[in-house]
Write a structure and sequence with these properties.
3-stranded antiparallel β-sheet; single chain; 9 strands; alpha+beta; elongated
Length: 189
């Protein structure tokens, strides 16, 4: 893929990042300082992006510039893990976010230092695999205990929560979220 092809594809990627996060042009404008008109023209490919425009967009979307523009990968294929803490949990992304499904390692602190579980609902499905420890999974109020080596899958329109079942050690899981699940678990407050 040559440079022109990469640049020509940036508009669609920018629109994809914005819509995946359910942001309006006005909301993105507030967060980036770019005008809604400029964002719209970038997304439609009517203007070529500049570094001054891409930097605030990359910050808002929490992605590196090369991912924002889908630059061809060269060199080191490793994912540089940047933990995110939300609601007392640690989320470690296991891939480069490109929309669709996203995998995370999630660390649940011991039960005594956790916030009380509360039900979540959102469109989609959720999958998880317990790496270590023991977790409670509640689906519509019915609790299941899962240990290391066990997995679960469920419709996320069912009220659900996951919590560490032990008071002495953290529990670790690998989870796969769709766009709605990622938004609910990682960006909503």
């Amino acid at each position: 893929m040559d440079d022109d092809e990469v640049i020509d594809g940036v508009g669609a990627r920018l629109r994809g990042f914005r819509t995946a996060r359910n942001l309006t042009l006005a909301e993105l404008s507030e967060r980036t300082g770019l005008t809604p008109s400029t964002i719209s023209r970038l997304e439609r490919g009517h203007i070529r992006p500049t570094l001054e425009q891409l930097l605030p967009l990359a910050r808002v979307y929490a992605v590196p510039l090369d991912e924002l523009v889908a630059a061809p990968r060269v060199g080191d294929p490793r994912v540089h893990l940047r933990p995110v803490r939300r609601h007392g949990l640690t989320y470690i992304p296991l891939g480069v976010h490109a929309g669709g499904l996203q995998a995370f390692k999630v660390i649940y602190p011991p039960l005594s230092s956790s916030r009380p579980p509360h039900d979540n609902t959102h469109p989609g499905r959720e999958w998880f695999y317990v790496l270590s420890g023991i977790v409670h999974l509640s689906l519509a109020g019915q609790r299941t205990i899962l240990g290391a080596g066990e997995a679960a899958e469920f419709d996320t329109l069912t009220p659900h929560w996951i919590a560490n079942a032990r008071d002495d050690i953290p529990a670790e899981i690998i989870v796969i979220y769709g766009q709605q699940g990622e938004r609910v678990h990682l960006t909503d407050v």
